[in-house]
Amino acid sequence: xxxxxxxxxxxxxxxxxxxxxxxxxxxxxxxxxxxxxxxxxxxxxxxxxxxxxxxxxxxxxxxxxxxxxxxxxxxxxxxxxxxxxxxxxxxxxxxxxxxxxxxxxxxxxxxxxxxxxxxxxxxxxx
Length: 126
Description:
Layout: H1 2-6, E1 17-20, H2 23-32, E2 37-42, E3 48-53, E4 56-62, E5 72-77, H3 81-90, E6 94-101, E7 106-112, E8 118-124
Parallel strand pairs: 1-4, 5-8
Antiparallel strand pairs: 2-3, 3-4, 6-7, 7-8
């Protein structure tokens, strides 16, 4: 039953939820370094925020006692991974894995946001 029902369901956008200790610091980072814009916020004080750039969207949730995971919390495909890597280096972003060609057809790198959340950035190579 579930298989036949699932064939009729179209999934929409998916947006990762990322916990941060200070939502204003996170907003500044994602805006200044990656070019995201805030499109929604909720709470007084703000405890939830939606940030968007092109087709990518992230949901930030303030959690003062947040401790970062040792796994990637988000993967974003970009059109020019080399240029974004250069931006991250110029902004002194902490690089977890340096830019490299991967055996699965991508050039990619991993960085940490100010809260230590690991973000995987990739560009498909043909």
